[in-house]
Amino acid sequence: MMVRMTRVRVAGPRALLDATLRVLQDLEVVHVVRPSMPGTHTIPPDREAGRLRQVLEDDEAALRLLRASPAATKPPVEPVSLPRAAALAGRTRRRAAQIAHRLSALEDERAVLLRYQEFFSAFESLLDRELAWPDGRAFYVVLRAGAPDAVHRLRSSLEAAVHGEVELFARPLPSGETAVLILASAGVAARVGQLLNASRVQELPAPEGVGETSLLRAMPALRARLAKIPPAIAACEEERRALLETVRPELESLRAWLHDVLLVREARTQAHAGAHLFLIEGWIPRPEVDKLTAALQRELGPEVVVEAAATELWTRGDAPVALANPPLFRPFEVITRTLPLPRYGTIDPTPFVAIFFPMFVGLMVGDVGIGALLGVLALVLRLRSRPRSTMRSISAVAGACALFAVVFGVVFGELFGDLGARLGMRPLGFDRQHAIMPFLALTLALGVVHVVLGLTLAVVNAWRQGHRREALGRGVAALMVALTVMAVLTALRLLPHALFTPLVVAVLVAFPVLILLEGVIAVVELVSNFGQILSYARIMALGTASLMLAIVANRMVGAMGSVLVGVLFALLFHLVNFAIAVFSPTIHALRLHYVEFFGRFFSPGGTAYRPLMHWHPSAQGS
Amino acid sequence: MQDVMALAAAAAIGLPAVATAWAQGRIGPAASAALSEKPELSTTAIILIAIPETMVILGFVIAVLILRGTG
Question: How far apart, in Å, are the Cα atoms of A243 and each of A105, A254, A423, B14, B40?
Fold first, then answer.
């Protein structure tokens, strides 16, 4: 539901502007906007704000480099000396950057040496071969993975070129590559080197900085270096932790204070300031006006006055939008928030989504077993999510869907398809497997209710916005849909047949009225309304398909010859069905809302309500 | 007659299934490309991908109605 806003003007002596803004920040209810009164001009941004932003950037970069948890923070505290605090932030940033650079270099070096270690292990077993040919030269090469005959081709080429003067040994590496040691006599070493170059086989060089050109001789030095890296990393980490512990309280308090100050300065640029007076305008939820007046009186005395410009009608286009739904409905804002905010004065669809979305998903799933599994999934999500997070909202939505799925499972008598029936479970309503037509009728009836409700909400929206003609047109369209459906029901003898003629006459009378109000396009929209009602047949189609999959899964137990294999296949099929039951009904219930329901009345384009408030670590930026 | 009805039911679901697959095969890559540029379009992408499924779903309903007619 949308909160009704009041536009307020706060005026007072210019000297009290900053104090007033601080009171507004403490209250956290006023969405500050530029004054609308003629002749007012706002305060330009000052240079000091730029300097404060630079300090904040240093502060946040230092905390980020020192890996301070972003969620935790200290309350804002004004520094005793801002230049000293700025110097601390800058100094800490530079030192943290140095530590981070050292850590990164050590990690990179370790990664490279570990890569070499793979080769060490492979070549080490060939060490005695090299020693047996002391006057020769050893070549260390690595052949790429995916070329199984590469070693053979290399050996053949070398044998053909320097027969008897060369030996080749190969070892596979865990990475799939092949480590190759080529031992050549002193006389043919140069020729072998040329051949390797010509074949584009790269020799593995000894890493730099160990003072050896031969990889094998460099190994002990590399091993020693590798052993020294973990203590060096630990020392860097310790230095980082110590630095963080030392500066964290001060930097976090400074960060919060800087954010708060910058928020006030940003709001200041929205205020009018004359030679003697200031004027702030803003939007505030209607019930908060008295609280604002009392707080300003208490903190700043009678010199600062509050004037409620008027509690705006829903027609005000520039009023910010705040949604305030009851706790039961609030998680469903996760669905409506994927769309742009509705315009101020139009209807927030969240309460309707909270009722119809889980109902549609429940109708499609309609199985006690799958509903229970979905409930477990929702519980796991809830336990693993933080309060007020998106994941927590999704878990609540999933929980509601699970509840509806279990309820409709009882109505349809389904527990993992027909397993419930085999165990003696009986439907309280109807059996979806056999009563396909009643199920189709139920879903179409839901479609009628949903579409007519959408049209009715469109009437309310148009009426609130002052578009009376449009409201009447939508109302007549809703009436025509309802009358036509009732006429069809009387024709099918589901309603007393005596009503048929009056209903048809009513439709015939309403039709020209509709065209008069909305034009010829109303005919297209009317037909589209009926088409969209038919779209709700997807609830029946997906529900029946899900049931059939479950029945097929159950029949596998007796159809595979072996009971064990049959049970395994059945479980696999039920798992697939569960995955489909989570995904497909969600997508289609969303589609029914976004296209068929919201399309009737939803009017996007609202501005979010962002009151001047203190900075919170969960907020991104200022 | 029942054979013809069964064939009609198969066509009622089979042909829209092919059409849906063709449409989704074209919409999917386009939606993915749009999402890589603008992730905020995810809702629109879901809607666009789900829209062609209406054909096969209504085909399923028609197939059921045809088969019910044979009974």
Answer: 19, 16, 66, 68, 39
Residue whose C-alpha is closest to residue B68's, from A431, A438, A365, A548: A438
Q: What is the CATH number of the domain that holds A166?
A: 3.30.70.2750
The domain of B46 spans 2-70
How far CA A547 is from CA of A70, A152, A248, A419, A427, in Å, comes to 47, 59, 58, 11, 14
Read off the tokens for A325. 């739904």
Minimal Cα–Cα distance from B55 to chain A, Å? 10
Average pLDDT on A576-604 reads 86
Q: What is the mean pLDDT of chain A?
A: 84
- Predicted local distance difference test score (pLDDT) of residue A152: 86
DSSP state of B69: H
The model's pLDDT over A414-461, given as tens digits with 9 standing for 90+, comes to: 998 888 888 888 888 888 888 888 888 899 999 999 999 999 999 998
Q: Which uninterrupted H or E stretch holds A166? A: strand A166-172
Q: Is B51 in Cβ contact with A541 (below 8 Å)?
A: no
In a domain, A67, yes or no: no
* Residue of A530, A583, A587 best to disrupt the B interface, most CBs of B under 10 A: A587
Q: How confident is the model at residue A124 (pLDDT cuts 50, 70, 90)?
A: low
Considering the domain architecture, whether residues A419 and A531 belong to the same structural domain is answered as: yes
User: Would you tell me how many other CB atoms lie within 10 Å of the CB of residue A410?
Assistant: 19
CB contact under 8 A, B60 and A437: no
A450 shares its domain with A572: yes
Supply A274's token pair. Answer: 């004359």
Asked if B54 and A587 come within 8 Å (Cβ–Cβ), the reply is: no
**Structural domain harbouring A388:** 330-600
Q: What domain count does chain A have?
A: 2
